[in-house]
Write a structure and sequence with these properties.
165 residues, disordered C terminus, single chain
């Protein structure tokens, strides 16, 4: 279990780092494009590059948000539940999330396979398949993170595993 938690922590560090780097690239690309337009020299393919970098950043951010257990939730009723029911609710919530990520990963795989060749961006003609692969990998990371969170809850909770790490 410790290895699985360590693996998920290491993957999360990579995921968030790549997401931050690509988001920074989006900012730089847009800034260069805006300044370039002021001098009638916009960045060729700036739109293509910014959209692709934003897709990478966004998909990896979803995975990291899953790892951080930071998706939006409403806890009005949950706050008044006893601890044992809170734990059951958390497990059910993670199972539903896991189910949704499995469906998203499955459909991402279907689209990736069906559209592997032949689709390119309009200006720079960059193939879409690497970015679809990143989306598929981010869904795989989200699945891993959900499974780890469920296992942690089933085997004693976060406090027990935080102490043993």
């Amino acid at each position: 279990m410790k290895r699985l938690i360590t693996l998920s922590e290491n993957i999360a560090k990579i995921v968030v780092s790549v997401s931050c780097i690509t988001l920074s690239l989006v900012v730089v690309i847009i800034a260069v494009n805006v300044v370039g337009r002021a001098f009638d020299k916009p960045l060729p393919g700036g739109f293509d590059l910014s959209i692709l970098c934003a897709a990478v950043s966004g998909s990896l951010a979803i995975a990291y948000t899953t790892k951080a257990n930071a998706h939006v939730n409403v806890d009005i009723i949950i706050n008044i539940l006893p601890p044992s029911l809170k734990k059951v609710q958390e497990i059910i919530s993670h199972l539903v999330t896991l189910f949704l990520f499995v469906i998203l990963a499955w459909q991402a795989a279907v689209v990736f396979i069906e559209r592997f060749v032949g689709e390119y961006t309009e200006t720079l003609e960059i193939p879409y398949w690497p970015f679809r692969l990143i989306w598929l990998l981010s869904m795989g990371c989200s699945i891993l993170f959900c499974i780890v969170q469920i296992l942690i809850l089933l085997t004693g909770g976060k406090e027990k595993w935080n102490q043993s790490l």
